[in-house]
TrEMBL record:
It is a multi-pass membrane protein. It catalyses: L-proline(in) + Na(+)(in) = L-proline(out) + Na(+)(out). It is found in: Cell inner membrane; Cell membrane. The keyword Ribonucleoprotein does not apply. It comes from Pseudoalteromonas obscura. Belongs to the sodium:solute symporter (SSF) (TC 2.A.21) family. Catalyzes the sodium-dependent uptake of extracellular L-proline. The gene is putP. This is Sodium/proline symporter. The chain crosses the membrane at residues 6-24, 75-92, 123-142, 162-184, 191-208, 223-246, 267-293, 313-335, 364-384, 390-415, 422-440, 452-474. The keyword Lyase does not apply. NCBIfam families: Na_Pro_sym, sss. Keywords: Amino-acid transport, Cell inner membrane, Cell membrane, Ion transport, Membrane, Sodium, Sodium transport, Symport, Transmembrane, Transmembrane helix, Transport. The lineage of its organism: Bacteria, Pseudomonadati, Pseudomonadota, Gammaproteobacteria, Alteromonadales.
Length: 492
């Protein structure tokens, strides 16, 4: 590896660890500070933290890789995500910020569900915590896979060493600095990703020898079509990624941490501006990268590494090191957020509820740190299966959360007739439908169910129907819930 690249990466690692140390000294004395930053994040930090933790390695590796292989038809994923993110800011963000505080100051999503529906049995808390831990372990492993590929392709290290280095640094600053460390590092990482996703496609485009359309037509004429092999159903599947936003715990927890609901419009403007530029950068990186590789007879063995290839070929080692740091930033921002949300569930929704209800804040913070380490070990174990693509791992976990939590979050914020039974039914039906759709032994039109249409679509629809039907068939919620609902809307 070039000395300039090593210097850039060393500075990046040092900065992340320094932020973790700063956060450790600032906000980890109590469980609210460790898990939610004391609900005091500025809108800029919350917005870029949500964006960076959302995008992960797929924005610099997964999406460019899909564009590199299939061309314009993969753009619909980005279109659906942008629409979904905007609606999430518009519909969920302000209400969730107010209602989680009204609902006994809930600091985790399972905690919110339990308080919102007066769940004395803890059934909602248990099921939602299990969903979080199962799908987040899978989701976290996708980031670890991206780290392994990065170190293997760019630094000449083994894939396994890459897993350990990536996870090790993330665990250190997350374990000690908690939510504030995760949010502040996400802010810095979001800025790095933004610059990288503007710089790489611009430089690549400037080096193309002929019009993009002509080169792509030579490479594969189908890359120029907006409708891929899946036809209209394929477009629906791609755009349905946007439905997942309403149920992603690591994203919507950022809304809970903003210092005031009045800051939400500012956070939305910052977050959406960042996202639009980032997704356009990812799309064009894949397209321009495919054209550049074709013109220069460059063999790209793994499409998901096209950003790495361009960074190393086109830039000075110091800048290349910065660009590689951008990939690490994308990977680490999401891993850290997912580790913290998983840790929060294990601590608040299992340990505090079932093992030691009277645990002190100091003890809960310690358990949270141990949980961070435990989840990371399991994620590394799963990531040893290097055959899994980053996008496939992310898509499964994204669908699981979107179907299990998305309808539940939306209905809980807008429909006061929804009750405990409807919430539980919706969560179970949504998660189960996604798992059946992924692993079912039957086919639809000669394809696996998930190959026919993205599993979030049937999962989201089935969960929504279950919520409405079961809620209407069972007793209405108590007047206390209705009073809290009115209080929530007065606070908006």
């Amino acid at each position: 590896m070039e000395i300039g690249t090593m210097i850039s990466l060393a500075l990046y690692f040092a900065a992340m660890l320094a932020i973790g140390l700063y956060a450790y000294r600032k906000s980890t004395d109590d469980v609210s500070g460790y898990m939610l930053g004391g609900r005091n994040l500025p809108p800029s930090v919350a917005a870029l933290s949500a964006g960076a933790s959302d995008m992960s390695g797929w924005i610099l590796m997964g999406l460019p890789g899909a564009m590199f292989l299939t061309g314009f038809s993969s753009t619909w994923i980005a279109v659906g995500l942008v629409i979904g993110a905007f609606l999430n800011y518009l519909l969920v963000a302000p209400r969730l910020r107010v209602y989680t505080e009204v609902a006994n100051d809930a600091i985790t999503i399972p905690d919110y569900f339990a308080n919102r529906f007066e769940d004395n049995s803890n059934a909602l808390r248990i099921v939602s915590a299990i969903v979080i831990i199962v799908f987040f372990t899978l989701y976290t492993s996708s980031g670890v896979v991206a780290g392994g590929k990065l170190f293997e392709n760019s630094f000449g290290m083994s894939y396994e060493t890459g897993l350990y280095v990536t996870t090790g640094v993330v665990v250190l600053y997350t374990l000690f600095g908690g939510f504030l460390a995760v949010s502040l590092t996400d802010f810095v990482q979001g800025c790095i990703m933004f610059i990288a996703l503007v710089l790489v496609p611009l430089v690549t485009f400037s080096l193309l020898e002929q019009p993009l359309s002509a080169t792509l037509n030579e490479l594969n004429p189908e890359m120029l079509t907006w409708v891929g092999a899946g036809g209209v159903i394929g477009i629906i599947s791609a755009m349905s990624w946007g439905l997942g936003y309403f149920g992603q715990p690591h994203i919507i927890v950022r809304f809970m941490s903003v210092r005031s609901v009045k800051d939400m419009p500012t956070a939305r403007n910052i977050g959406m501006s960042w996202m639009v530029v980032a997704t356009i950068g990812a799309i064009t990186t894949g397209l321009f990268g495919a054209a550049y590789a074709h013109e220069n007879n460059i063999v790209v063995k793994d499409a998901e590494t096209i950003f790495l290839v361009l960074s190393e070929l086109l830039f000075h080692p110091l800048i290349a090191g910065f660009l590689l740091a951008a990939i690490l930033a994308a990977i680490m921002s999401t891993i850290s957020s997912q580790l913290l949300v998983s840790s929060s569930s294990l601590t608040e929704d299992f340990y505090k509820v079932f093992i030691k209800p009277n645990a002190t804040d100091k003890e809960l913070v310690l358990v949270g740190r141990i949980s961070v380490a435990a989840v990371s070990v399991l994620a590394i174990y799963l990531a040893h299966d290097r055959e899994s693509t980053i996008l496939s791992l992310v898509s499964n976990a994204w669908a699981g959360f979107g179907a299990a939590f998305g309808p539940l979050v939306l209905f809980s914020l807008f429909w006061k007739r929804m009750n405990f039974s409807g919430a539980l039914a919706g969560m179970v039906v949504g998660a189960t439908t996604v798992l059946v759709w992924i692993y079912a032994p039957f086919t639809i039109a000669g394809q696996s169910p998930s190959g026919f249409i993205y599993e979030i679509v049937p999962g989201f629809i089935a969960a929504s129907i279950a919520i409405v039907v079961v809620s209407l068939m069972t007793s209405p919620p108590s007047t206390t819930i209705e009073e809290k609902f009115e209080e929530m809307h007065r606070g908006l």
